[in-house]
Every structure is written in C-alpha cells, then in structure tokens.
Write a structure and sequence with these properties.
The chain has about 150 residues and is an alpha+beta fold. Helices cover about 25% and strands about 30% of the residues.
DNA sequence: GCCAACGTTGGC
DNA sequence: GCCAACGTTGGC
C-alpha cells in the first residue's frame, strides 16, 4: 500500500534553473535547500507526488510547470563538498543534516500562472503557505484542492 | 536596488 | 535562554 499522492510547490530562480532546463535534463537533484522546514517537507515526499514548479525572483514570479517527485529523500552530497556553495562544515557524514529529492519533468504550463493572480484567488484557495505574509519557504505543501484549482487557471 | 520578513549565529 | 546583529529570500 502506498500513501495517497500528495502535492508540493518548489521554488527556483529561472536564471539559475528554469522549467525549460528541467525539460532538457528530465530529472534534477534538488540540491542546496538549507532551511529545516523546507528539508522536512522533502523528507515527507513520496515517489509520484505532484510538484508545482515555481519561478521566483524574476520578471513574472509564478507557477511555470508541473513536475513529479522521482525518489524519496537522500543526503544532499553538496553539503560535504568543500568547493560547493552549499557546503556545510557542521554536517557529518554519519548524520547528514541536509536531505533532498530528485524532481522529474512532467510538463510546462501553456502560460505562467502569476503570483499576482494566485493572490487574487485567496478566497478560493484558503490558507496557502505560498501567499502567507512574509513567507520565504522554498518547498511547501499544496492541498489536493489547491492543486486542482491552481492548474484550472492555466 | 530597496527593504520587510524571517532564520541563524553567537555573546552574555 | 535571551536577543542583537547579521545574512538571506524574494516581491516590488
């Protein structure tokens, strides 16, 4: 018995890694998350979970595509790599601090669903981590109803 | 580039 | 354990 499919939203800066990049590489290890809450969400992920691929810090921030969780969480190798920007001297190999999943390309949306538009539907969406005041989480949960509604905006 | 929000660090 | 200082995120 597998757990019921769940849904998530993952942020990325398109200048660094966009939905088009994911389409090219097909599957990408989601390295570099250094926030405990975001990490905890990744540890909860199951293979096949749905991911809204969100572009942040760009001209039109918003949902740009759909992806799928490709495997359960495993230690992020960049935390042990001294040459990596994500190196964490305080993380021990015997007890890695940071974990991550791989994310597989599903599809690019016909248009980006802008954050501005998402905010305008606050009533339909209900409580949503993406639009909560001051939110900066890069990996956050989405309910089945929110998933369905957001994709209906496409 | 600005700045609000928020997480982390480190002195005490 | 408190909290000021600092760094980062991310919209605008």
């Amino acid at each position: 018995m597998s757990a019921r499919k769940r849904y998530w939203l993952m942020k990325t800066e398109p200048d660094t890694f966009s939905i088009d990049d994911l389409a090219k590489v097909k599957t990408e290890p989601w390295t570099g998350v250094r926030n405990y809450q975001a990490r905890n969400h990744m540890k909860e992920m199951q293979v096949g979970d749905g991911v809204l691929f969100y572009h942040s810090s760009c001209e039109v921030p918003g949902i740009a595509g759909v992806a799928t969780v490709a495997n359960t969480a495993y230690p992020d190798p960049t935390q042990f790599d001294k040459n990596s920007d994500y190196f964490d001297a305080k993380s021990a190999r015997e007890q890695p601090r940071w974990e991550m999943v791989d994310v597989s390309f599903d599809r690019k949306l016909k248009r980006v669903i802008p954050l501005e538009e998402i905010k305008a539907h606050a009533d339909e969406l209900g409580p949503f981590a993406l639009t909560q005041r001051g939110n900066r989480l890069s990996v956050l949960p989405v309910s089945a109803a929110q998933w369905k509604f957001l994709l209906s905006l496409e």
